[in-house]
Amino acid sequence: MGRRGKRKDLILTFLDFVLTLNLLSIPLYLFIYFNMEVRLLKESNAFLVSRLLKVLGLNSNSEKNFVIIDNKIYEISWDSTGWKSLYTLFALITSTPIYHRRKIKPIIIGLFLMLLFNTARITATIYFSYKQIYSFDFLHLGLWRWGSIGFLLFIWFIFLYTQKNNIGEAKNIIGFVYGRRRKP
Fold first, then answer.
1. Distance (Å, rounded) from C-alpha 144 to C-alpha 50?
2. Which of the chain's termini has less CB crowding within 10 Å, N or C?
3. Is residue 140 within 8 Å of residue 125, measured between CB atoms?
4. How far, in Å, are 121, 133, 172, 183 from residue 20 at the CA level?
5. CA Rg, the chain, in Å?
């Protein structure tokens, strides 16, 4: 394959990725538009965070999606669960044009790492704000918003690095219509 063919293949691979990612963003927007929530995720986050705060020496309990420390109440909202980051990581990995069997393990590991990061993020935010080390708004809105995006991209870049020789081996959407598939 010549230079022109490689360029065309690269452009089609990129367009395939972008189109698939955009199609996978539709459920994200539907969740947002219809204000759908998974109560179990909020409540399990609150439970886990309250247990971690107990380990850190705070007298904390969870009730539904609330973490209670003495007389202070912290709500674990739907957005605080990190569901958008989890779904975005899933969509990024799924959109990468490689064979699906190569995506299963990275999706499981990546989502698990994002869940751990998010639990640590919530725990640290509540702990540091309760101890008045940092303000809640600084931690929640400033530091952790960008930290979550950075961690998500870090996981995805590791996935891309480990799969760099496989990218383009399969086509998601455009390839079924236009292109051919490489053999594994």
1. 19
2. N
3. yes
4. 30, 43, 7, 21
5. 20
Kindly provide the residue ranges of all beta strands, DSSP E only, lying in the chain, ordered along the sequence: 60-63, 66-69, 72-75
134-139 contacts at long range (C-beta below 8 A, 24 or more positions apart): none
Q: Around Cβ 7, how many Cβ atoms within 10 Å?
A: 11
Task: Please write the tens of the pLDDT for every residue from 16-49.
Answer: 899 999 999 999 999 999 999 999 999 999 999 9
Looking at residue 4, what is its pLDDT?
76
From residue 3, how far is each of 9, 12, 43, 66, 168 by CA, in Å? 10, 14, 54, 58, 16
CA distance 121 to 14: 33
Count the neighbouring beta carbons within 10 Å of the beta carbon of residue 158. Answer: 14
